[in-house]
């Protein structure tokens, strides 16, 4: 069935609307970062760069490292942007843009997010890295995708825990899990912690921060979230993209993993003294996982 021009929007040169990319310009292994400036920090480590495209906050570089073709793209901040990036990248591979038809044989992609985040537990050190083995969506995107595979057991356990604590959330807790790429199925516990990453719709009140305005995520709600346990899982960190990436990637048949460098510790009220160095180390680690070197 032909997808109408209002739904699948192309630029006059045939490129996809927001990302300004054409089929073939993106590798099937894609690093996502929030900050557009981080794209160059990643690609300057490539052996060769074949493409640089910039459109709004979406900067894309494609190149090669250790014989592997890679793309790195900035999503900007928030799952509203993740919605655009995941749908448009998927369309480049899985929709015939000229005929406006879904491809007969889907291509599965691999997404690795290299982001920054705030630690949620006081024992998780600043400047360390967390792999999100699940993500708690507080961002509002997921209800619009009814085929999202929600971990209903974990979501219900968290709901119960919050109700018992008398601290329900402003939105019902929805936990999603990724189809992890092979290189992160058994993460090295000496290098990275694992846990549930909360994905918020904003940076301030939606993450429990108070400057001049109060937040619905007040001290007792944060404490209830902090004390949640399910087997060995607990909520480790907060950021603004992972749940959207996990939900859409999984629903579209792609693998995804999110690694976060912890620049803040929200339980301790501290912030990294070396944020650039920590992000550099995360990039090196992510690239070594992707290329096996
Ligand atoms: O460092 P990035 O990847 O942008 O990620 C984090 O930083 C931004 C907020 O400062 C949000 O996008 C959050 O998810
Ligand atoms: O606390 C933090 C730090 C980085 N990014 C976030 O979204 N929150």
UniProtKB/TrEMBL annotation:
Matching SUPFAM superfamilies: Purine and uridine phosphorylases
Top-level taxon: Bacteria
GO cellular component terms, A-Z: cytosol
Classification via Pfam families: PNP_UDP_1 (PF01048)
Reaction(s) catalysed by this chain's protein: uridine + phosphate = alpha-D-ribose 1-phosphate + uracil
GO molecular function (one): uridine phosphorylase activity
Domain Nucleoside phosphorylase, first and last residues per copy: 30-268
Broad class of enzyme this protein falls into: transferase
E.C. code: 2.4.2.3
Protein's GO biological process: nucleoside metabolic process
Record's protein name: Uridine phosphorylase
């Amino acid at each position: 069935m032909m997808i109408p021009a209002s739904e699948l929007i192309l630029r006059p040169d045939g490129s996809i609307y927001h990302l300004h990319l054409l089929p073939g310009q993106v590798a099937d292994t894609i690093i996502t970062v929030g900050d557009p400036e981080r794209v160059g920090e990643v690609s300057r480590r490539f052996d060769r760069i074949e493409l640089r495209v910039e459109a709004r906050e979406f900067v894309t570089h494609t190149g090669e490292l250790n014989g592997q073709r890679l793309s790195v793209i900035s999503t900007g901040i928030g799952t509203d942007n993740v919605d655009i990036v995941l749908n448009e990248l998927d369309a480049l591979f899985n929709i015939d843009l000229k005929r406006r038809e879904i491809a007969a044989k889907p291509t599965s992609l691999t997404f690795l997010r290299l982001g920054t985040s705030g630690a949620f537990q006081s024992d998780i050190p600043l400047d360390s890295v967390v792999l999100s083995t699940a993500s708690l969506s507080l961002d509002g995107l997921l209800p619009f995708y009814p085929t999202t595979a929600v971990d209903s057991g974990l979501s219900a356990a968290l709901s119960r825990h919050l109700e018992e604590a008398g601290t329900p959330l402003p939105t019902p807790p929805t936990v999603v899990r990724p189809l992890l790429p092979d290189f992160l199925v058994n993460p090295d516990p000496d290098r990275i912690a694992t846990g549930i990453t909360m994905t918020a719709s904003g940076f301030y009140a939606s993450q429990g921060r108070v400057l001049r305005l109060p937040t619905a995520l007040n001290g007792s709600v944060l404490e209830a979230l902090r004390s949640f346990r399910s087997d060995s899982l607990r909520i480790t960190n907060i950021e603004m993209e992972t749940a959207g990436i996990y939900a859409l990637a999984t629903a579209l048949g792609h693998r995804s993993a999110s690694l976060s460098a912890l620049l803040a510790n929200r339980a301790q009220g501290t912030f990294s003294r070396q944020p650039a160095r920590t992000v550099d180390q995360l990039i090196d680690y992510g690239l070594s996982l992707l290329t096996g070197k």
